[in-house]
Design brief:
Blueprint: H1 2-19, E1 29-34, E2 37-41, E3 47-52, E4 55-59, H2 67-77, E5 82-86, H3 92-95, H4 98-103, E6 107-111, H5 112-118, E7 122-124, E8 127-129, E9 140-142, E10 145-150, E11 153-159, E12 169-173, E13 178-180, H6 201-211, E14 220-222, H7 231-253, H8 258-263, H9 271-274, H10 280-291
Parallel strand pairs: 4-5, 5-6, 6-9, 13-14
Antiparallel strand pairs: 1-2, 2-3, 3-4, 7-8, 10-11, 11-12, 12-13
């Protein structure tokens, strides 16, 4: 247990340093996905933007210091009022702007577990996520699905079994054939799986196995992190997660320590394609604690 606490402390210090970055230097990049749908990249999770006659809906909102830049980027896309905010899960790089946007009058929606998590301080392998003030909390929550009839499309968000976290939702725009996955899928990079808060490799693989048959060759996929993607990217990601997960699980069952598992290089054949910005060793650390005995 002492070793685990030390590892958590080291990782928390690392994320604290990352979050201390100069947000003044961050640029918000806007990419049009389809007519009426955009993706914003900056620092933190990718933001989905639905624009049309009914106003603007945002999916996720990155970090609080970036709210003004995000709003400025949205203003360049449309001068319609921003009315809704949907959170794909509760991590701070996707909900950090909630309080700012709540004060601006946006109606915030997410799965039940997201609001429950944000009511109290949370600990993760990447450091703490502080609770939100009431103004940043979800006004509406849902159990399984919630549907918006907005901007000429039907947007359905559906909760999946614990994968990246215990409150993940995938968002689908029916007519546009666009999916926003939150952090259940990250494009061409090793992801963070929150294995101490309900996430698991098995859950991510199951989520991908359920998602892939619903995609076609024309589906645009907005990932939680990384560039705009498609079905082939999701399949490659699923296979990477499943393969590395099985290797790490086998080593843990042999009684290997975290350092011994890293030394075995279970990610070696994937590092060239997936090893930036997060290294294979970092990813192994997340996967390992999904199987380590202290979880039981």
């Amino acid at each position: 247990m002492r070793k685990i606490l030390v590892v958590l402390l080291v990782m928390a210090c690392g994320i604290a340093a990352a979050l201390a970055q100069n947000f003044d230097a961050v640029q918000i990049k806007a990419t049009q996905v389809t007519p009426g749908l955009w993706m914003l990249e900056g620092a933190g999770g990718n933001i989905g933007v639905s624009v049309g006659e009914d106003g603007i809906l945002l999916i996720d909102d990155q970090f609080a210091p970036l709210t003004e830049k995000i709003l400025a980027a949205v203003k360049k896309i449309s001068d319609k009022p921003i009315r809704f905010l949907f959170n794909t899960h509760w991590h701070g790089d996707h909900t950090g702007g909630n309080e700012n946007l709540g004060r601006a009058g946006l109606l915030i929606v997410a799965h039940d577990n997201v609001r429950t998590r944000l009511l109290t301080d949370q600990a993760t392998l990447l450091g703490p996520t502080p609770k939100l003030q009431k103004v940043g909390l979800q006004v509406i929550t849902f159990d399984n699905t919630v549907t918006y009839h907005i901007n000429g499309d039907t947007m359905t968000a559906y909760h999946i079994a614990p994968a990246h976290t215990d409150g993940d939702a995938i968002v689908r725009f029916k007519s546009a054939n666009v999916v926003h996955t939150g952090d259940v899928f990250a494009s061409w990079r090793y992801p963070y799986i929150d294995t101490i808060n309900g996430g698991s490799v098995q859950g991510v693989v199951k989520a991908m196995d359920d998602l892939i048959p619903t995609l076609d060759d024309n589906t645009k996929v907005i990932p939680g992190h990384g560039g705009l993607s498609g079905k082939k990217d999701v399949i490659a990601y699923r296979n990477m997660i499943a393969t590395i997960g099985a290797r790490v699980e086998a080593l843990v069952k042999q009684g290997k320590s975290l350092e011994e598992v890293k030394a075995a290089k279970p990610t070696a054949d994937f590092d060239e394609r997936f090893g930036k910005p997060r290294s294979g060793d970092e990813f192994v650390g997340f996967v390992y604690y999904g199987y380590a005995p202290y979880k039981k």
